[in-house]
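note to self: dont lose this again. the chain is below, predicted strucutre after it. 160 aa total, dont forget to put it in the shared folder this time
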Amino acid sequence: MTFRPDSPMNRLVLLWPGVPIGACAVGFAVSLLQAAQTQSGTFAALALAMGFGLALSVGLLFHTFFIAWLEVNVTAEGLEVRPVGMAWFKARPRVVPWARIEEARDVVTRQGGHLTIATPAEQLRLERALFREETYAQLCEVLTLQVGRRRGGDASLLAA
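---
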């Protein structure tokens, strides 16, 4: 069972990352061409602004796919976690065995909350905003069952 960031806004962002990047790239190229032909400081400043916009757009896209959004796969061995973008490179996910998961807490805040999965070495934090409500509820349910089984039937772990 795989859980990926799948809110409607995330889908929109997935479909349109090329628009700001393409616009900045075209603006950068045209401004550089005009600055080279006219020796104008105005076009040079525009080229600089478009170049910064291009760099920021590519950086945001990189951060979103390779750092911020995590794909969570629930297997018999444990949770497999990897950034969404790493699936494009066929990178193997990092496995967090069920035996290492100490607790899973559903933290509800005014901004929507998050799911924290604690292990002895680290804490995985999955933002609720990245998942549709039913996907998030299924992930919480699976974690509750698996951690509850490991602890001997205590299924009230996510009620913190």
